[in-house]
Amino acid sequence: MKVEQLNRSFGAKVSELSLPDLNQDEVQYIYKLWLQYALLIFPQQNLTNSQQIEFAKNFGALEFDLSPISNVRNDGSIRDANDDDIVKSLKGNMEWHHDSTYMPIQAKGAVFTAHKVPKKGGETGWADMRAAYEGLSLAMKEKIEDLSAFHSYEWSQKERFGHKDPKVSEFNSYGFDIDPKPLRPLVKTHSETGQKCLTIGRHINKIEGMSDQEAQNLAKELEEFACSNENWVYHHSWEVGDAVIWDNRCLMHQATMWDLNEPRIMYHSRIEGDPISEAASNYL
After folding, report:
1. Domain map of the chain by residue range?
2. What are the pLDDT digits (tens) for 212-230?
3. What is the reported pTM?
């Protein structure tokens, strides 16, 4: 097994191994690498869907086994780039976010694989919320230390993309119908490493004690700061067969635009968060 650290505050490429054939010692070692680096990239693994699910289970129970992240219909046709709710969800993913902050329990992490990639664009980016927190001024740390934000997927999608009623759409409304909207501290302590990190991103629309506009302005200010240092951000150019796993507790992520007339087919397995440490404060 070969481990090459990215030239960033986080992340490593891991090669010279076969993910479907890991023994228990190798699984434990990879788990420790994951906690250390937060993002692990495994080039050219070419996992089947079932192999991806089994690999993801090494990191915990799954919030869901497998979901296609794709602009391609089951019949192979390309979805309408302008008026398709699945494509609108893909465009939403192009904004910085953590997975499942809009659910009662935030996801622990995710495994992502590339099955078909466009000729240009379609990278996935991650941003290190540990380094971003450490880089904040003392005044900003003091300002946000005790602040908590409501996260709403319904708001973040409808506000920007005008989703249709999920009852008449292919979009399955996952996270749309959560009420009350989950409340999460802007500053969290990672349950396994003890490191402080930011929990921010596009789903924040309200912060306790602020007007909605003040809350959204603060969330955007924190996001822009977190993504302003190239040492804290990495975008991966996919090749078919690549697999990654990231720690959703301390990394934000985003997709990047590509020509939506070209197919891009990815598969996502989401790892369930701990029901105590990752629960929204208003769901404890």
Report:
1. 2-274
2. 999 999 999 999 999 999 9
3. 0.96
